Amino acid sequence: MPLDKIYDPSKVEEKWATHWAESAEFQANPQSDQPAFSMVIPPPNVTGSLHLGHALNTTLQDILARYKRMKGFNVLWVPGTDHAGIATQNVVERQLAKESISRHDIGRRAFIEKVWDWKKTSGGTIISQLKRLGASCDWSRERFTLDEGLSKAVSDVFIRLYQEGLLYRDKRLINFCFRCQTALSDIEVEHEETNGKMYHIKYPLADGLHYLIVATTRPETMLADTAVAVHPEDDRYNSLIGKEIALPLTDRTIPIVGDPILVDREFGTGAVKITPGHDFNDEAVGKRHQLDIISLFDSRGRIALLNNLPIFEARADVVKQLEAQELLIKIEDHRHAIGVCYRCKTVVEPTLSTQWFVRMNDPKNSLVKPAIDAVNNGEIRLIPDAWKNNYLGWMENIQDWCISRQIWWGHKIPAWYCHGSDKDQCQLICNQPIVAATPPTKCPHCGSTDLRQDTDVLDTWFSSALWPFSTLGWPEETPLLKKFYPTTTLISGFDILFFWVARMIMMGLHFTKQVPFQDVYIHALVRDAQGQKMSKSKGNVINPLEIMERYGTDALRFTLASMASPGRDINLSENRIEGYRNFANKIWNATRFILMNMPNGEVPNAPSQNPADVWIRLRLNETIQSVESAMDRYRMDEAAETLYQFVWHEYCDWYLELSKVTLQANETREGTIATMRSVFSDILALLHPFMPFITAELSPDFSQGSYPTDKALSFPKSDPAFSSHPDSVATAASVQVLIATISEIRNRRGEMNIPPSEKMSLLIGGTSAAGGASAADSKEDAIANYLPYIKRLAGIETVTFGSASPKFSSHFENGWGTFHLLLDEARIKKEIERLTKVLQKTEKELDGLQSRLNAPDFIKAPAEVQETLHLRLREISQKKDQVIAQLSKME
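Below the sequence we write its predicted structure tokens.
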């Protein structure tokens, strides 16, 4: 069917997105003999909406999945979503709040039912948006971290870890959000720079004769201090080690301890207050020196010692008391980072709490060591390799993992506690949790039937850590697990390398005895055009859905792929996306041109040895090899750039223009049409992983039928014999000279403002420079074969050969000889006059810039001013050189 004159992405993309979502085109077959390739999608939060991070990650995965299908692999790409405990609970709580209801008003069971209702009606948003992006997942195998199969896997893992002694319950310091009322993992704590205060406080010694000065940003926590630390080699204080401090505002005394690990003699006052119950570094000091641990806060973040004041009110009260007792020396402005909850932005406080922990580095059964060894010995590759040291550094200093959360939405912990009638006896002998897959009926110690399940749920990252194998049916030995595990590749952002990727490696090795994936490709962050991190507060967020509506999904995908250089953040601008929208238009218009020259759908098979046809086939071969190499190295950016240059500049700008000459000759027409069509068919295949929508729409015109699926559409193969044949190489080289010749003539015309419609004359000299008359004749004959192209594409009417130099011309040289673009005297003088004026103006500006740069006071100018002037100096110097070069070409 004839193509519309204008490409409308929305119409094409809606059609194919619907087709792919409804078809079984991307389903993997565990019974297939094809080599397996598998990936699991990093499960987005069920509350989420598509942002650029999702778009980048999904685009890179989809490019790889489609490429592997085209290479003959049996591809399984597992989609799914994460139940996102805190985020989802907050969404439903906000809905209830609109009705002036809290979750506590309706109870846990009713609240969980409301969350499931929300999930059914609104939880599929992110999945529909991934389909809109063109994600070719096996949608028949979509998983959810709270579905029945994954819940069983989570329960089994919890129980096995507990039985192996790798899971324990303890009262320890954890991050706690008093707004969300739950413990948080490190990744759920965001660190923000803020303007605060530094309080310098006098700590009197118990002898009443001396005092130390400590500085803190959290004076309220001094009520829980259990020591002051100094460096044992600090001559100011080491004589005081072992003495007692009369802790202000309390009736307690605390020791002065020497600690060379925590204390920096050069920082602050050199004396540090130690609060093991409210600071992670201080907790470590407390363990080293066997200090008491005091917890100030209740579950709502209030301090009982200060009449249950909330933290910030308590801070003001403590400062007021210190001032009254003349113990506050000074308050300074201080900019520092604070931890806030990633959801509600409440300041997170390190707090003592009873939680469940995974023991990460047990001497007899370490989860960490196998995960370190797998990366060190190459079983798992981190790409780029620079992330290897980051990974190893974190793993070697890993802490036990807090996995319990004080919320209602999530995997309930499979542990029960005895609440028998004899409380004293239960406290003594029934103090251990009963961990089981099914609810126990009675206490194994006292026989009581009053058992209550742990009210906490598991950290979302705990279930996500099992994702590569739980999604394939583990702990059952399913056909899917046998065929596709270990998975082949994981594509992920660097921000979850430690909190998700590392934990998947540990869990995969521990429970399956195999690595969960072989390659981990780590992509960078998408920033705005100025390199700033996108945020709603800055107003610089780019909505991918709006971009897809405005420019087309293929344009966004190609932009992200082309800019995804390993180790470099993506500074995204709409101008770049618009440029690739124009690229899609270029592809569309090229199709229309080809089809116009294939009346009645004729598909000639005549081989063509026409120079332009030979050249484009050779360049296609080289492009296929380059793209294939780049894809196998996860350099999707290199592959995209190679395709862009080949398709736009070589095929469309040059080959199609050159072909217009040969299409006019009956003896070469069929061969050119055959070449044009076959090369473009391969172009569509090469572009398909990057731009699936437009290539799906156009492929039927070149595949003699309906659109071939990824599985049937083969990745193009290069022809090394053709590419290396001396005749092919020589012909292609001649075409490159032809292109350079036409480009140079066009440039000269442009410089002199000669319109394309004005025909000119060309004199070609230098053909007899070596080899005598016969050599000159053969060279003229060789050039003569290309004269029809030069005449049509460079606006040349007559071409002559000769050795004499014309009186007026603009000239250049290449491998074919010296080319003189003939000009009349008036035009050449006018051009010389114009260039001379430009040169004079340029030299004047250069003198002015040089004077400013040489001025004695210029060194005092701001750095950005100096940099701007130096840049301008380089630009004007280059312009001067260009003008001089242009003048030298005038005769």
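The radius of gyration is 36 Å.
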